[in-house]
Write a structure and sequence with these properties.
single chain; about 270 residues; globular
Length: about 270
């Protein structure tokens, strides 16, 4: 197996890992590939978002298969919010059959217009993927990751969940980071080699939207006021990516909106 053929988690410690993300959208279309191609020369894997805020869209599994067919290593994002145990197992077995080898296990935002399931939370889902299914279903083996929100207040419950997730997770993907003091807990530092720091190039007005509409996301006022143009957001994102590398984290996870043509600038001096 060559370096480029390795699972992206095998690259931790060998290089600074970069992942990105795409949202498949609501059209019966592969138009999301246009955004994916902007990431291609930079990322080791691409996360496929699973119905953010509970809004229907093309399934993350279908989009992951399309990405695989087009030369990407996809990370199948799976919300336990929308599936019971049977549906989760069905989708995971199907994903593996179709050549998908990575999953990001999350609980999911509470939906506005549909009835949630929530039979499993993210920790229970991770245990299913990493421990229970490999024992029961022949041929099943997947790399599994989890999310961590260093912005959440209070941090106590988040850190308790993170400790549980780390028993099973091969990687941790953080929410967007603007202050590295939020990543200062000893549990985070102990496991930083497999943590992907969330990097989002802010655009003017974006901070206000996040603060009002995205649960658990708080962009500091000082940061929000500093973003007067897309250039400011790209520059800040580059600084965050550089600091993540300097502080020994395993890599970064890019959340890029409308400035996909500037990914190279965001990663300048980093990867």
């Amino acid at each position: 197996m060559t370096f480029t053929e390795m699972a992206f988690t095998e690259k931790f410690g060998r290089k600074f890992v970069v992942t990105g993300e795409i949202e498949p959208g609501t059209a019966v279309s592969t138009s999301f590939l246009a955004k994916a191609q902007k990431f291609k020369q930079y990322v080791d894997a691409l996360n496929v978002i699973d119905s953010p805020l509970g809004e229907p869209q093309v399934s993350s599994l279908a989009a992951s298969v399309v990405l695989k067919q087009n030369g990407f290593e996809p990370i199948l994002q799976m919300c336990s919010r929308d599936r019971n145990r049977t549906a989760i197992i069905n989708d995971l077995l199907g994903a593996k059959l179709l050549g998908i080898n990575n999953v990001l296990a999350i609980t999911g935002d509470y939906p506005k217009e549909s009835k949630p399931v929530y039979e499993y939370d993210s920790v229970r889902l991770l245990r299913l993927v990493k421990q229970e299914m490999p024992e029961k279903y022949k041929g099943f083996d997947m790399t599994a990751g989890a999310a961590y929100n260093s912005m959440a207040e209070p941090q106590g419950p988040e850190l308790i969940k993170l400790e549980k997730k780390l028993k099973y997770a091969d990687f941790i993907q953080t929410q967007m980071v603007f202050d590295f003091d939020q990543l200062g807990d000893k549990l985070v530092r102990k496991n930083k080699k497999k943590i992907l720091v969330g990097v989002l190039p802010l655009l003017p007005g974006m901070a206000d939207y996040f603060n009002k509409n995205i649960p658990g996301v708080v962009v500091p006022e000082k940061v929000a006021k500093s973003i007067k143009s897309a250039d400011d957001g790209v520059k800040l994102a580059n600084q965050i990516a550089k600091q993540a590398k300097a502080e020994g984290f395993g890599g970064v996870h890019l959340m890029v909106f409308k400035v996909e043509n500037r990914i190279g600038e965001i990663l300048k001096g980093v990867a």
